[in-house]
Amino acid sequence: MSFASSRLETVKEHLKPTMSAHKSPITCHVLIASLGTPGQNIDVKIEKLDQSGAFSTLSTSQTNSDGRCPTLLPEGFKTEKGIYRVTFETKAFFSKIDQECFYPYVQIVFELANPEQHYHIPLLISPYSYTTYRGS
């Protein structure tokens, strides 16, 4: 198979409909920068800061084979303005591939100001560093 046809097959896979047409209003994506691969099967938790100042769990999920969590929040979940936190269980992932990890988990806290918008939280990680930004 040529590089071009291999790339075409990859693009086709990304365009296939998923089992559910539901897409969470908040999604995430994990890339393992040190390996150049998606972060597969990483446990993810999303929480919202409540009025008492404590975080309450909204949902838990796991990244798919492409390192994405398209159904991070359950179908029909209404996002509201507020402070949210996404936690990625990175040590468990790196342990599965027999690598040490400096960060046992990564927590990203962000403010959702426009509930009608889609929020995407990408995470690029290696055993000794990570970076994130607001994606599209």
TrEMBL record:
Keyword Hydrolase: yes
Binding residue positions for substrate: 29, 68, 133
Enzyme Commission number, as recorded: 3.5.2.17
Keywords from the UniProt entry: Hydrolase, Purine metabolism
Ranges of residues in domain Transthyretin/hydroxyisourate hydrolase: 21-135
Hydrolase as UniProt keyword: yes
Pfam short name (any one): Transthyretin
InterPro entries: Hydroxyisourate_hydrolase, Transthyretin/HIU_hydrolase, Transthyretin/HIU_hydrolase_d, Transthyretin/HIU_hydrolase_sf, Transthyretin_CS
GO-annotated molecular function: hydroxyisourate hydrolase activity
One GO process term, biological-process aspect: purine nucleobase metabolic process
The reaction(s) this protein catalyses: 5-hydroxyisourate + H2O = 5-hydroxy-2-oxo-4-ureido-2,5-dihydro-1H-imidazole-5-carboxylate + H(+)
Function: Catalyzes the hydrolysis of 5-hydroxyisourate (HIU) to 2-oxo-4-hydroxy-4-carboxy-5-ureidoimidazoline (OHCU).
PANTHER family recorded: 5-HYDROXYISOURATE HYDROLASE, URICASE AND TRANSTHYRETIN-RELATED
Similarity-based family: Belongs to the transthyretin family. 5-hydroxyisourate hydrolase subfamily.
Complex formation: Homotetramer.
Protein name: 5-hydroxyisourate hydrolase
